[in-house]
Amino acid sequence: MAVRFLSVTRRYPVDLCRLTASAVNRSVVGLFSTAAEHHSAGDDCHGDDGDEDHSHSMTHVRTLEMRARKLEEQVHDLTERYKRALADSDNVRRRTQKFVEDAKLFGIQSFCRDIVEVADLLEKVEEGDGAQQLTQYMAHIQGRLQDIFTKHGLEKMSPVGSTYDPYQHEIVCHTPAEGVEPGSIAVVKQDGYMLHGRTIRHALVGIAVKTQEQ
């Protein structure tokens, strides 16, 4: 308070020697009243600043709460999407597995349907048929078999005269080169087969070799 009084006296200089005692008292009281008014005004300003800070803090808190709620909604939405995607993926996996199992079991049903026709032809062969008739009948069955093989991509190899291929042929013997180049395939002991270009049974072959007489 004394500091404020001195500050006020500097701003409002007073010649105390010319004043009476009562006048001095009145001047001092006035000066203190002025200082008090300045102090009250300062307190009021500080009070307004505090209210503004509090209002700003509340606004900031509400903003953060809104952001938090939005983030929670986004997390919940993403979680639900993930669960649905996981369920769909599991369903696709089960269907694919069932499809593969069915393909393994019934993938050759078309081939089997065709091959039973050959079985029907074989059952019709009778022991009393003549040799010529039987030969013709067997040739018909053989032709029907080849048609079925071709339809399903099964091809019989014809390696005679060709070069030995370890992926298609298996050497079981050697034979003199007669009519074929030495080192090539001269004879087939058992036919080989390919399915859509892939060897499923190697042909058992004999390789031609050059003899001393040759």
Notes on the protein architecture:
The chain is of the alpha+beta class and 214 residues long. 62% of the residues lie in helices and 14% in strands. Helix 1 packs across helix 2 and helix 3 runs antiparallel to helix 4. The longest helix has 86 residues. It comes from Cyprinus carpio. Belongs to the GrpE family. This is GrpE protein homolog 2, mitochondrial-like. InterPro entries: GrpE, GrpE_CC, GrpE_head.
What tags apply to this protein structure?
single chain, 214 residues, alpha+beta, 62% helix, 14% strand, disordered N terminus, GrpE, protein-folding chaperone binding, GrpE_CC, protein homodimerization activity
Please indicate the percent range of residues in DSSP E strands (runs of 2 or more): 5-15%
Rough shape?
Answer: elongated
Main beta-sheet annotation? 3 strands, antiparallel
The number of strands is: 6
Strands side by side in the biggest sheet: 1-4-5
Tally the helices. 4
The computed structural class is alpha+beta
Gap between N and C termini = 140 Å
Overall pLDDT, averaged?
78
Order of helices and strands: HHHHEEEEEE
The Cα radius of gyration reads: 56 Å
Share of residues in helices: 55-70%
